[in-house]
Amino acid sequence: MNISRRKFLETTAAGAIAARSLSASSDMPTRVLGKTGVHVSILAMGTGSRYLQYKEEDQAIEAVHKGLDLGINYIDSADDYGKDHLSEQHIGKALKGRRDSVFIATKLSNRDPQKSFEIVEASLKALQTDHLDLLHIHSLLLEDDLAKIEAKGGVLDQVLKLRDQKMTRFIGITSHTDPTTLRTALERHDFDVTQMALNGALVGMKNGKGGMVPNDAIKTSFETVALPVANRKKMGVIAMKVMAQDALIGPAEPSKLMYYSLSLPITAVVIGMPKFEHIEENCRLAKAFKPLPVSER
Question: What are phi and psi of 23, to 5 degrees?
């Protein structure tokens, strides 16, 4: 790959200071991302299936610019968001000249450790950066998946090596499937950050027509099972599926759903925003956030 990490390696200390001092616009609230020490906006921009509804590249780039201009400084992507790292490609083009002010999190969906380095190199190239701020192991499933990830020489070992090689500053793991398996992973390993489904309906998610949908078969809650472990171990926590792909809108207002999750002991909510007006409205709501009373939650 043509992208060199030499500059990053030579300025690790300076980079650490810069990362800790990331700031959103003055009226966008920030929180510390757990033990990373980085201040990030309480609203993170999701760039998965809903972001990919911007069919034209210039619109996708403009959407990122709008989010940054309104105070978002945390961008969430993954290697499998779109064909050939499409989401990451859009982000990379959007962040030209703005990389230092943005916290980039992406994900490694692969479970073949032999391919991990190559895939992350491709993510770096698409994002046009020499390092990631956060690399997640993507979408932890059930116990057999965790066993595969934890196997000697497996994906977890590879991700730790990638951090050692300064390809990523921090590592994490995500799950929207099984709270109990995520709890086990968080108890066993010292991730810097975790991302989990946290919403007012206390539901998990599963693959369905058109994307992720609520999974009624999950009887346990990420909020009660996995979140306390992450808090105890001082991990940064990113809440996702806060509106359950809009399935919860109607029974509850979008503002209440966002505020429910932000009232938990987390760092930020990541939301996909397929229209410019969604970006504007969600940023407005984030800036006006006040914790919900326990009775209202």
Answer: -140, 145
